[in-house]
Design brief:
183 residues; Rieske Iron-sulfur Protein; 6-stranded antiparallel β-sheet; 4-stranded antiparallel β-sheet
Length: 183
């Protein structure tokens, strides 16, 4: 009995010591963005409908700029389109990385869309706001040299250990031609 009790206590200690390293799938920071029509922003439409493609979204007032991985940009003036909108809300309102990983969800085998903050989370933890850039299915920080795998929930794959990308909840409804990021 004592042996079983000690084994149980040891298992609890080991499990609880590992739990400190677990990060939530979604960050708890406030974020909001609504884009419609998605088809009016070609880089966004392409990224949400083609596994392996991503784009960035930055905003100044009602002007949203969508940039493909190859660097070409498309501006979309939400106000001029007659859309009601709330200003982009992210860390320092810098922007988002949006797209569809080339690897399907292991639980459902379906492709899914993702929204990450464009701010490097490890630089941000050091009170530095540094914008990431896209390189294939990787987000890269010029400052800390970390590479984040967009296919694998934004984990660090190069440049030393660190925290994964800030991921936000996202809903893409093709039938209504709208995407909403809301945390």
């Amino acid at each position: 009995m004592l042996k079983r009790l000690c084994l149980s206590a040891l298992c609890i200690i080991l499990l609880s010591s590992c739990m400190g390293d677990i990060e939530n799938e979604f960050c708890s920071l406030r974020a909001f963005c609504r884009v419609t029509p998605v088809t009016g922003a070609a880089p966004l439409h392409e990224a949400l409908n083609n596994p392996g493609l991503f784009c960035t979204l930055t905003a100044k007032g009602s002007l949203y700029t969508f940039t493909r991985q190859n660097g070409t940009s498309v501006p979309l003036d939400m106000g001029a389109m007659g859309q009601s909108y709330l200003p982009l809300q992210t860390i320092n309102n810098l922007g988002l990385i949006l797209g569809t990983p080339s690897v399907p969800d292991v639980r459902t085998t379906q492709f899914y869309t993702v929204a990450f903050d464009i701010v490097c989370p490890n630089c941000y933890d050091n009170a530095i706001t540094k914008q990431l850039y896209l390189q294939d299915e990787t987000a890269v920080c010029n400052r800390c040299k970390r590479h984040y795998d967009l296919r694998n929930n934004g984990i660090v794959t190069e440049g030393g250990k660190g925290r994964k990308l800030f991921r936000y909840r996202m809903t893409y409804t093709p039938a209504q031609d709208v995407v909403v990021i809301s945390n």
